[in-house]
Each structure stands twice: as structure tokens, then as C-alpha cells.
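Researcher: Last one for today. Full complex below.
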Amino acid sequence: MTTRWLTPEEQRAWRAYIGAALLVEDALDRQLQQEAGMPHMYYSILSTLSESPERRLRMTDLAERLKITRSRLTYAVTRLEKDGLVRREDCRWDKRGSVAILTDEGMRVLEGAAPGHVETVRSLLFDRLTPEQVGQLEEIFTAVGEGFQGGTAQATGDDVPWRRRSSKSCS
Amino acid sequence: MTTRWLTPEEQRAWRAYIGAALLVEDALDRQLQQEAGMPHMYYSILSTLSESPERRLRMTDLAERLKITRSRLTYAVTRLEKDGLVRREDCRWDKRGSVAILTDEGMRVLEGAAPGHVETVRSLLFDRLTPEQVGQLEEIFTAVGEGFQGGTAQATGDDVPWRRRSSKSCS
DNA sequence: CGGGCTTGGTTAAAGTTTGAAACAAACTTA
DNA sequence: TAAGTTTGTTTCAAACTTTAACCAAGCCCG
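Model: Here's the assembly. Have a good evening.
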């Protein structure tokens, strides 16, 4: 089949998106690196843990929510553990498993970094959008995200490497 | 001043965006790594060069268009040069400068990879959006991107590290 | 029970990105 | 024009990500 190239509108949208998304992530990383000494993803790890019951989550669940690989998470948690912001514990129900737990210190650091982070997100993104656009943004990326639930694979109807299964809480 | 936290709508939009953007970038990287042996950013470098007059661009201009640091670009171009896809030449007008040039081999590789890449972009993004949403996407990220033109700096009205100046073409 | 497959998590090596110097050419200006 | 500053690019080390094993614990079924 002959390639369906992008239409001019699609090209403009794609370029605007790719460029701005990169700038936003960079700015976010820089801001958090300055004020909290960690990149955005690490902040997200703390943040996700803080919202979980007992501030704890199994590694696989955490990876799944953050949409990152287990290996990447292992590395990150090891670093955060060294910094005393997260602690690991063995899962009592499944001896293979381990749980990441946000420490009090981690909670403090998170709370200290949150205002600056939110302010940045706001100034980069929401301050520039109308309320309608905020709604559109949500719809667009919800739609895009859903594409990853059912195995969209391209040309070669391959196996889907991004889908992940779930596991019991193990609180 | 007390923090202006995100509203529930903003939170939903932010989460949908962060998650999906990550998945998209990952999928793009994986697809290009498979089919072209390079990450998305490297592909963008080739692509940008291919659209420039004489397929050449000064390092700084290239970095600016791609919204990446010069250092990152240097590393990438060094690798692409090793692979024979790009060639460097000294700038005749400004002896400090150097130009990156897409080689014929680079052009071939790019052309070979383009269809698969476009197909992926389409299946991940545009196939899931209505034409109106494509328009909204462009507007949203154009607005966001414009925020980086005038120095938006946050809380501490600091110096702006992302703004870059321009330089002569040096064709 | 006892292989053999799957799952949860880590590890090692290679590749990439970052951020702060280092350098050298170009510009400014006294 | 020498001294100081800015600009274009590279370099280096440290931090991070990826990929592909690897290992142990659960699971399945004859």
C-alpha cells in the first residue's frame, strides 16, 4: 500500500506538538532539577506513591501507572532509596514481589517541591490555554492513550510491547 | 503567594497528556530503532536537514529548530557521521562555525524510513482524532510553544536558558 | 511430584542526555 | 590594537535510559 503522507494540517499540528512537548519536558526537568534535585519522572514516582494507600505500591504497578519499563523504575527507585526518599520492602504475599514506599522524608521533599512544580506547569501550559482548550487537551490525549490499550501495532501486526498486565495490591 | 493548585479538569488533562505523550514518544523511538536503527530525535535531524536548502544547516540553527541543546546535537551528529548519514564541513564565513550536511546515503536511509514512521504517527495519533481535534492540537501546542519565545520564567524571574538567537545561513 | 512456561524484579553493558567547563574565533571598545 | 567579552562548538564526567539477559518464585498439567 502506498504511504498516506500527512496532510498540511496534520504536519502543522505534528510539528507544533513535537516541538512544544519537548520544550515543556525540558523546562519541567530543569525546574525540578533546580528546586528538588531530581528529574520530572522521579518527582512523578514520589507523587504517585504519595497518593496511594499507605504510600506504597508494588514495583510493577508503579511502572504501569507511570508508563515506564520495570528496569527504568528499578534504577530510579534505587537512586531515590539512596537519597532516603523511598524505601523498599518485600511483598508478603508474593515472595517475588517488592513494594516501594514513600518515606516521611520523601513526603517532605515532595511537599516542598510541589508548589514550584505546579506553578511551572501552570505557567507553561494552563496559563496559555482557554478552559475549552483544557477540555480539548484532555479529550485528545485520552483518545491517544486509549490506543495503547488494545494493541494498535502498525504495518506488521506484531506483538504489543507496551501493554502490561495488573497485579494484586499487596498493601 | 499561596499556590494555585490545578483544578480537577486541569489535573485530568495534565495526566492524560503526560501519560500519552510518554507512550507516543516511546512507540516512536521503538519503531524507528527497529526499522532505521536510530531514535526519533536522530530521525528528526535527518529530516530537518533534508528540507533545508542544499541539505545543509549550521549546527546552531539545527539545534534551534529541533529545540535541543548544542551539546546534544554534537553527540548525535557525531554518531550519524560515523554511520555515514551526515557529513560535517567548516563554515566558510565564520571560522568558528560548522555545518551539518545530509549525505546521499543519509537521504536514502531517511527515505527508506519515512513511510514506516509516518504510518506510526498516523496510527498513534491522527487515526484517533477528528479533523477538528487536529486543528485544536495545533492551536494548543502553538500557544504553548509561543510561551517559550518571550521568556516566561517562573517564580524567580530568572534568566531564560531556552531562548536562542539566530545566525546567518552560511549555505 | 517434576519438568516447563510465565511473572516480578534486578543486573550489566551499551547508548544517550545533561551541564558545566574548555577553546578558539569574532566582536567591542577604550 | 591589546584586553575583555560574546558567540559557536566541542569535550568530559556524571546521570539516566534501553535492551537483553538473568534469576527466583509462582503456576500448570501430565
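The longest helix of chain B spans residues 8-36. The beta strands of chain B are 56-58, 86-90, 98-102.
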